[in-house]
Design the sequence.
């Protein structure tokens, strides 16, 4: 061997190393895109907006007895971003002698418990904390701070349609 002519070690197969590096970078790019595309879509594209029904049909008011609350069930469609789901709801519906119809939210205004109609005492009763409500929604007794909340209603061809719930503003003294 000569002093000036030292040969450098030659890479065994430089094209193989380059290929492996290219595959590693390509896989990294694919994984990065797999994470970045959904994130970018979430950040920059708004969710699909679908028209929600503000009103839902609850039942036939011609079958309601006067001064006898009836619990009516209905299905409401909700859209939450891209997810659409159906939710069962209820309302206590009362038909008064003057044919006025009122639909109450089934949730007690004290702590959100479900109340029921006590036919024996002719009042709505919340079994959790003893609040009682009159047929017109007024607080009769208990810790409930205000009357029962009501659904906005409309009647078309003897069919009851329920809209949003409006919170009662009165407080009991």
Sequence:
């Amino acid at each position: 061997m000569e002093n000036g002519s030292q040969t450098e070690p030659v890479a065994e197969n430089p094209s193989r190393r380059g290929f492996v590096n290219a595959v590693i970078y390509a896989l990294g790019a694919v994984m990065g895109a797999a994470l970045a595309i959904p994130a970018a879509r979430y950040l920059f594209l708004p969710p699909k907006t679908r028209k929600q029904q503000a009103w839902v049909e609850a039942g036939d008011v011609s079958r309601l007895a006067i001064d006898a609350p009836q619990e009516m069930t209905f299905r409401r469609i909700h859209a939450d971003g891209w997810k659409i789901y159906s939710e069962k709801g209820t309302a206590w519906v009362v038909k008064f002698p003057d044919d006025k119809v009122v639909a109450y939210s089934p949730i007690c205004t004290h702590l959100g418990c479900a109340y029921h109609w006590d036919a024996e005492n002719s009042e709505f009763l919340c079994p959790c904390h003893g609040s009682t409500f009159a047929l017109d929604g007024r607080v009769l007794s208990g810790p409930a701070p205000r009357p029962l909340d009501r659904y906005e209603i409309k009647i078309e061809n003897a069919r009851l349609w329920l809209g949003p719930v409006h919170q009662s503003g009165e407080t009991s003294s």
